[in-house]
Amino acid sequence: MQAGDVPRTYADVDKLMALVDFKPAMPIDEGMQKFVDWYKEYYQR
Hints:
By secondary structure, the chain is mostly helical. Helix content is 49%, strand content 0%. It has helices at 14-20, 28-42. The radius of gyration is 16 Å and the shape is flat. The two termini are 29 Å apart.
């Protein structure tokens, strides 16, 4: 870490989810894996 870096951040998105009536249904680890798989396929890596 460099001077001034924030070691951890947190966000409370409850108000946003209520405002736009959206709640993610896919766990983050599954979503990230799907993205990585898509990226590798799309860019042939």
